[in-house]
Write a structure and sequence with these properties.
This protein is of the alpha+beta class. It is 41% helix and 19% strand.
Length: 229
Amino acid sequence: MKRLLIFITLFAVSTAVFAQKKKDKSGTKAMLTHEDSLSYAFGLSVMENAKSAGFENLSDELIMQAIIDSKAGKSKLDKDKATGIINAEVRKNSQKKSDMNKKRGEDYLVANGKKPGVQTTSTGLQYKSNVEGQGVMPDKNDKVTVHYHGTTIDGVVFDSSVDRGKPATFGLNQVIPGWTEGLQLMKEGSKFTFYIPQGLAYGSRAQGKIEAFSTLIFEVELIKVEKID
């Protein structure tokens, strides 16, 4: 949130330069200089940060008025109060998003658990056997080599050894609980689909394209098991 406020402050300053430039035929300011481009870039950064924080219904008029007031030294809110307002809204938006992700994941798993071939364990992990292998089964202390393709329930790909063209090797005690449990259900040569509840995945921790409290789907091929004594 400090970064958002810094961007807003910098944008306010750069607007002074931007506002002095000529307009093009469309009625918008023409970016004629490096300062023009820099000013526009700050504007984009401010709005991208605002959108990523969940601010979707901001008033353009009041944003511009705040910039003008700040430049004139006549701000209607002091910095601490403004920060408090923004932080409170960020927390509210974050909680709303988290609740939505949890509910969507739960609803998805309820419906998915009724599909043919989908099994649900006592922990809530769901899996489907697509190909049954004939090799050994790993336990939680073993090392495995796998190919995998991970997506959200919306189909967003967040990680894929298949796309990289190189399988991954790791210890089963080094991964998320859904993987530790799921891989122990497989034999070498098997191909499963895992449907992992957020509580067996990353929970409240956002990871790249994975939002907090996301239910995840993995296509997994168990290539090799290395038994660890």
